[in-house]
Amino acid sequence: MALFVEKTTSGREYKVKDMSQADFGRLEIELAEVEMPGLMSCRTEFGPSQPFKGAKITGSLHMTIQTAVLIETLTALGAEVRWCSCNIFSTQDHAAAAIARDSAAVFAWKGETLQEYWWCTERALDWGPGGGPDLIVDDGGDATLLIHEGVKAEEEYEKTGKVPDPNSTDNAEFQIVLTIIRDGLKSDPKKYTRMKKRLVGVSEETTTGVKRLYQMQANGTLLFPAINVNDSVTKSKFDNLYGCRHSLPDGLMRATDVMIAGKVAVVAGYGDVGKGCAAALKQAGARVIVTEIDPICALQALMEGLQVLTLEDVVSEADIFVTTTGNKDIIMVDHMKKMKNNAIVCNIGHFDNEIDMHGLETYPGVKRITIKPQTDRWVFPETKSGIIVLAEGRLMNLGCATGHPSFVMSCSFTNQVIAQLELWNERKTGKYEKKVYVLPKHLDEKVAALHLGKLGAKLTKLSKDQADYISVPVEGPYKPPHYRY
Amino acid sequence: MALFVEKTTSGREYKVKDMSQADFGRLEIELAEVEMPGLMSCRTEFGPSQPFKGAKITGSLHMTIQTAVLIETLTALGAEVRWCSCNIFSTQDHAAAAIARDSAAVFAWKGETLQEYWWCTERALDWGPGGGPDLIVDDGGDATLLIHEGVKAEEEYEKTGKVPDPNSTDNAEFQIVLTIIRDGLKSDPKKYTRMKKRLVGVSEETTTGVKRLYQMQANGTLLFPAINVNDSVTKSKFDNLYGCRHSLPDGLMRATDVMIAGKVAVVAGYGDVGKGCAAALKQAGARVIVTEIDPICALQALMEGLQVLTLEDVVSEADIFVTTTGNKDIIMVDHMKKMKNNAIVCNIGHFDNEIDMHGLETYPGVKRITIKPQTDRWVFPETKSGIIVLAEGRLMNLGCATGHPSFVMSCSFTNQVIAQLELWNERKTGKYEKKVYVLPKHLDEKVAALHLGKLGAKLTKLSKDQADYISVPVEGPYKPPHYRY
Amino acid sequence: MALFVEKTTSGREYKVKDMSQADFGRLEIELAEVEMPGLMSCRTEFGPSQPFKGAKITGSLHMTIQTAVLIETLTALGAEVRWCSCNIFSTQDHAAAAIARDSAAVFAWKGETLQEYWWCTERALDWGPGGGPDLIVDDGGDATLLIHEGVKAEEEYEKTGKVPDPNSTDNAEFQIVLTIIRDGLKSDPKKYTRMKKRLVGVSEETTTGVKRLYQMQANGTLLFPAINVNDSVTKSKFDNLYGCRHSLPDGLMRATDVMIAGKVAVVAGYGDVGKGCAAALKQAGARVIVTEIDPICALQALMEGLQVLTLEDVVSEADIFVTTTGNKDIIMVDHMKKMKNNAIVCNIGHFDNEIDMHGLETYPGVKRITIKPQTDRWVFPETKSGIIVLAEGRLMNLGCATGHPSFVMSCSFTNQVIAQLELWNERKTGKYEKKVYVLPKHLDEKVAALHLGKLGAKLTKLSKDQADYISVPVEGPYKPPHYRY
Amino acid sequence: MALFVEKTTSGREYKVKDMSQADFGRLEIELAEVEMPGLMSCRTEFGPSQPFKGAKITGSLHMTIQTAVLIETLTALGAEVRWCSCNIFSTQDHAAAAIARDSAAVFAWKGETLQEYWWCTERALDWGPGGGPDLIVDDGGDATLLIHEGVKAEEEYEKTGKVPDPNSTDNAEFQIVLTIIRDGLKSDPKKYTRMKKRLVGVSEETTTGVKRLYQMQANGTLLFPAINVNDSVTKSKFDNLYGCRHSLPDGLMRATDVMIAGKVAVVAGYGDVGKGCAAALKQAGARVIVTEIDPICALQALMEGLQVLTLEDVVSEADIFVTTTGNKDIIMVDHMKKMKNNAIVCNIGHFDNEIDMHGLETYPGVKRITIKPQTDRWVFPETKSGIIVLAEGRLMNLGCATGHPSFVMSCSFTNQVIAQLELWNERKTGKYEKKVYVLPKHLDEKVAALHLGKLGAKLTKLSKDQADYISVPVEGPYKPPHYRY
């Protein structure tokens, strides 16, 4: 796409694929609202007092229908919002169109190039002369990364006059990041420094981004407070587990229509995401083999009747491979060469480096046949045998299907709203330092409670006597912080 | 669409949505071939001898990718083929295009009107001056019905000069059938009679069509031999059960993206289709309630931990309703009025009369909001509450997703190929009278055996001594006819 | 035990282990009655008219608590009853005691020798001077066998004066049968012939006995009518499947206390019994591998995510082996030698020849260590490695636990009561010839219906219009005879 | 039993039910050793260096076969051991006999009175003139409680001369504790004070005991260091979850033989224990309803398709009730009165106050019918309807079956051994203060690793590059402390 910003009649900026899909997006947003009781409760509870009045929020998070309900919850609470996606394939264009038309500045479309991706991220952070953002909603940490790298470069530039050199790295994507920063430096050598100063904090959505934050905290380089939303129980034990249990088979079926029953499936990693994937595949009738580095998670897999082996043991007999590790270099091109014809290879971890796409793309004589968008058959010259790679190694549930369903995202996103409120409300109290925090247990329990009614559940109430017996308040929180659920 | 027949450069007739999708269709057909070992084995085993040389086969069966592999198996064995779909929403347009371009005369597109549907059926039966078909592959029995009604009308016309009166029936679809027959009578008053005379037989795919055939056999009105493919074990206990277990959640997810976990789902009917649906919903985390008329099936549901109640008991608390009964008038508009807002209502039984679409469409003041094709929200005027109806009450797995996956359809369709071969090979021996037959057990076992290798299975072999001990041949068949599996 | 008949104060004969357990037996019988609604309904419906008045019924069927409720249902309907078990380990001594004291002549105890077993069978058939039995309830066909062999010997004796020669067979158990017949011949050379003449018929409980009956029918040697209760849907698809799903893990746990989760379990045979066993093991967290000869059953196993291999493939890596085939020579001593230390080997098929106990017992230098009754560790001299064999290779669920639970046996035994009533009521009408019959569908459905209320289920009722549409009576039966459920 | 201490020929004290069961116990211990690879590895790794040389260990923990392997691991590492059970019904008498004969001083039998129970606890703590214990293995905290109460009384006595007054409490069991302390005070007013001084620490097994420890830590009354073994991942997420998933149905089946399939089961509490119980019941075919106070756990139950209601909602329609809460007063006599006839009521939480046994026992006119030990039918006078209570409201898996299986207990007990080693090795370093500690992550991972080989698992190894990428050491630990698994 030609990279220029467009404007709505009301003057709000945007760049989306097709504004004519806005009506369709609106209809699906309305359906999603019924499935997202946590967010709708936030609108009811906090909307009248407009707590985000004056707050400018930038989000970098998959621009889906569910995210649309999140965005409109933030605006319903008074915020001004700019948004980009955190993955080049995850945007639902009708969702982007509806939000761009009705509610917030959106820069996102399905199938961005990496160049376009970072342009969009820059736009979402670009609040113009008035400055901003005040708050960031991040997923994977790319918005946070850009600011941190920007500040680093500006400091270096101020001290030494040196600008970042994109050729200093092999990583193609990081070259783009450095180029963007370099190109901006001369026109405005204090842009990211101003951002950093204004920023109240970030709330981070996912395991990968959280890991980055803890590393920065450990290194002492974290520039603003961060709330780790991922480790709310109602996030990591829900969206990661139940969300993937839903969206992995959804992605497999939409991309390949392959029968899962009877197949041998390998799930690399048995964390929350891997547990959800393995459960879904097993329930669909596959025979599931898990690979793990962690003996505890491996023993959990065994207790569920799953086999635990290494990838090498099974690479030539399995039909479906799913990476969920959050690590890199899990399935290499040498593995792929040994796979059965039409073996399916996909990733549901945050980043696209679990599968060696670079090795595959540069394999001499390999042939890529695009069956349909996000579904490619790669044929090796020696064997004429092909493998099917989904979403080019990126998050297959967002690339090939529509991501996690609304209900479970309502849990995650209610945590986001609460985290953003917490950061904003405490912006002047000094409660949050430049560290990583998790939300307190009672808020976690509240998020869950907001989702019970929709499913017809009734909670039992503790008597005072019982509460005293187990040493908890009658209204909770009911568990110690280390409780594992 | 304008209803005129088109021709390929080679002169073969067709009518499809978009011939430019043929390449895409071809790619998916090639993927499906790898998943359909039974059909590919038929090509290997029978292809060289061209057993269908000279046979003209008309098919009326969902025009999907899997059916494309069936059609090209029939042509690989020497047959000439004309095809239509047996459902207005089930055609995959890229499959139709690929077959029309490369292999057979196809008349089918997704989203036919009923008028168009019966025009397509007529075309598939219209072999021109040379006459035909010799064989029919039927699904639901509409091709068979048209010939039977045609013959009846021609006999009446010959005797009394009377033509069928479309106004003699309330059923809108049957009015169309009578109109077609009436309109054809004058120009060619012996068309269906000639067809009947030539016809070697029909092989019928599904429960509903089989029921019609047995009724005709009982009434003595069946005009040619029929093989009941549905009741091959490798069909009804596989495609109905495992196929629906796969395609029901697939349809739900593509149509609505709704989270199944935590929901209350009602499955009406606990036959093979209902068992597959209930298993899929339970495994996805729904709480499943079954409705049944048959106490044995009800007791089976209970043994799986499912609740068995009547629709009236649960209509206002469930989130998802699926009809699988093969009967009519299961969910009426009065039920729908009582449902929760955005309850999902869908059917996976063959015909569209399980859900009272007529009652819904004619409900005073009801408002239909099409979210996307095959996904409609219907809002009742009194409550402003809406329900979501999939595929207009027709087969939701074909209307909203892509039907059953290739592997399980390979079982069903290998039975079809074997049945067609059997009818054709015995066409002059008198083996088959005007009755309904099932395939012998050893062929059923053969179909299964052809599908084991793909899944890495190894069978145990009986010793002669063991075979004698249980009184079966070493090579099978291993079970008595009444065995239930 | 010393083999002499004892008598109650009322003069009824019996031989049980310990009459002092009668009170305990009575308490458990009362519990079981609440779980057996089908049998209790028979008492309510038929008790007042005393349909079995004058009928003498011999039963040869595991003498358990559940069977006690069956026996007392027969007596509540007017019958006089004599009973033995059909397995040397399956008797529950407290059940035997309660029935012997209160209701019927019982000859059965847990841990009979084969000699004792056949003595008990003879006693159960010995109605004294008045003659009898009129009816037989058989399980596995041993009572039926004894009469058939007896008649054969008496006919030979009458013709030629020759008596059976026990040495004419290698089979140790059949030698005992021949000895019994031989020893009785001289004192009463017409005993079995008189029995045969009087006998109205037999109702047979299980797959193995049914197979014998069909063989006799095919050979023309069947001496009286037989009803195949096993193939009632409410028997073979319930007791075989759901009964074993319950009682297999029960037997494993009571015998070995071994953790099932994480283990590799091999199930030989995937019929109804194998399906129940595999489901139970999978659900308990084992990784299950199936061995099969029948490709259809093998494909069913694959569709449930189970691996299908041969015993040879897995013999040295599995932890638990279960035979369910109904065939012989499944696990041979050469297999057992290759197993892991403390691998568990057990059988849940009717006869004890699935596991090569003879080969094991006679293996040179093998050492048997009895952990507790029915749980033996057999140590091979070469490896010092041992395997654990349950119930000496006999039905492990009855030898190591208490067999199937009451509720599912209520289904099976209600079929028995109905079959016995049918034979008795039609004894003078000639309805039943010397053939094998199954109960009509409407009675099968009735059995199921009697069990729904207890589980809180509510059936849906067909309207007349719906019934006509699918061509069934409003009250059922709802399915054609070939329907597989 | 008459309460006097017996002695083995070697002079070791004991009191068990029946020493003649020692051989049987030994055989089962040998079987268990094969299933407990973690403990056996400890013997191999640490045995040669005799790290517990000189250590006197008192254990208060269910005296089962698995505990026997733990005890003999402690002695194999050089310890001297005295043991009692922590539950009046949980002792397996053959295990107690084998240990008493061969390895340690045991005071335990199945079916102790409360009086006997505390006498046994006192004996296990009574190391005679030489003093002791040095270490305590506790389960539920009763040994720890007795010492704390003893010290409190001795301090009070020293200060004021006052002795504890058993009538100061309503709690019958606590009256016994106070009586024991009071009676000992005069003869030895410093017994517990000496114990406290010598004690290196306690390792606590279960949730309930841990809760008590944290309360004491919070109050500042904890007298010695404590290691919380329960919250090792390889304990609470394994034994509590997978152990109960195994042993709940085991207990139900042994006690009642009731068919679980088709039943409605209520699980009170959805913590780790409740999750295991609910999974087992669901898999066995029950319809499971959960009661919960914690919205997060409730939402987890919903995501698995379980219904969440209050006990009041379902008390009159459920068939099976299981308490797993760790709280008190869950099922009261007023609930029991409303239950269906023969509803089963049982508890699998540590203490027996989840079920209102006192209310039941004192209900006017109630009648108790003991079916067999640990299985009582209680009949209410008004309705003549009875409920079945297992193990008198105590841990039903230990009272009615044999507790958790060896393999999962090997995980728990390997943590115990490691905790005891840690306390002992650091006894002079001051590493452990009078606080509650959990074991470090790498030891937790080690425990898991020791159990993988037995199940045939193979771990994947991280490359250095991958380890750096996710910021963990190549050898682990792999997860942050807050990770929930």
Note down, in words, how this protein is organized:
- The structure is a homotetramer of 485-residue chains.
- The first copy, chain A, has 20 helices and 17 strands.
- The mean pLDDT of chain A is 97.
- The radius of gyration of chain A is 23 Å and the shape is globular.
- An eight-stranded mixed β-sheet of chain A has the order 11-10-9-12-13-16-15-14.
- With 485 residues, chain A is of the alpha/beta class.
- The longest helix of chain A is centred in the last third of the chain and has 20 residues, at 406-425.
- Helices cover 43% and strands 14% of the residues of chain A.
- Chains in contact: A-B, A-C, A-D, B-C, B-D, C-D.
- At the A-B interface, helix 1, helix 11, strand 14 and helix 18 of A face helix 1, helix 11, strand 14 and helix 18 of B.
- Chains A, B, C, D: It catalyses: S-adenosyl-L-homocysteine + H2O = L-homocysteine + adenosine.
List keywords for this structure.
Ado_hCys_hydrolase_NAD-bd (chains A, B, C, D), 8-stranded mixed beta sheet, homotetramer
Overall strand count of chain A: 17
Computed over alpha carbons, the radius of gyration of chain A is 23 Å
Structural class of chain A: alpha/beta
Oligomer: homotetramer
Uncertain parts of chain A: none
| Pair of chains with the largest interface and how many residues each contributes | A-D, 64 and 64 residues
Overall spatial form of chain A = globular
Average pLDDT across residues of chain A? 97
